[in-house]
């Protein structure tokens, strides 16, 4: 990160807050990491990520709004919906990688 | 990140979830980024980060519990309390850097 001045600090605080606004919260990055293995239906996602349908629906909508996940309605009977990561979501790779690394080292520190 | 197999996926999902358990939520990383400019009192932190005292107190306690922030009671009248990042919190630098970078590029994408 840049040298700390009041200005660069405010700027980096803002950028971090922007990121947290989009992918913060308990579930968004978990969902992105679950979807990395390929597109998934709603129930499958709910099961794999361990999220209740009500919350999952809201989280997916927000991810879609921010261009990170795309939603595809399939013409089946009954209609099914599949969720998939967008190309843009790949820009999150460095964030996910850093978090994965940190999670691993923190776990080692604890046990 | 490693190649996707069911096993490496589960492991990386777990590591990301661990990280989110410790520093996820709306405020933790914002607090860490605010404290990067030096130790701060409770009211100062509340003001700078824009967090209500009730929530700030809870967030600081959790950060302290995880060894990321230290709390120092100063023998003044009235007693004041200062919060400071620990050395261990520096392990979060890569996460913060990645989030800062992403926040900046996402903002450019939007405007």
TrEMBL record, chains A, B:
SUPFAM superfamilies: Winged helix' DNA-binding domain (SSF46785). GO terms for molecular function: DNA binding. InterPro entries: HTH_HxlR, WH-like_DNA-bd_sf, WH_DNA-bd_sf. Pfam families: HxlR. Keywords: DNA-binding, Transcription, Transcription regulation. Residues 9-111 form the HTH hxlR-type domain. Gene3D superfamilies: Winged helix-like DNA-binding domain superfamily/Winged helix DNA-binding domain. PANTHER family: TRANSCRIPTIONAL REGULATOR, MARR FAMILY (PTHR33204). This is Transcriptional regulator.
């Amino acid at each position: 990160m840049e040298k700390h001045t009041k200005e660069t600090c405010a700027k980096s605080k803002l950028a971090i807050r922007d990121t947290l606004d989009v992918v913060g919260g308990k579930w968004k990055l978990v969902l992105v990491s679950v979807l990395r293995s390929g597109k998934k239906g709603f129930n499958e996602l709910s099961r794999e990520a361990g999220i209740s349908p009500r919350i999952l629906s809201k989280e997916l909508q927000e991810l879609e709004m921010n261009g990170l996940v795309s939603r595809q309605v399939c013409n089946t009977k009954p209609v099914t919906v599949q969720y998939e990561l967008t190309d843009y979501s790949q820009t999150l790779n460095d964030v996910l990688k850093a978090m994965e690394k940190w999670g691993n080292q923190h776990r080692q520190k604890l046990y």
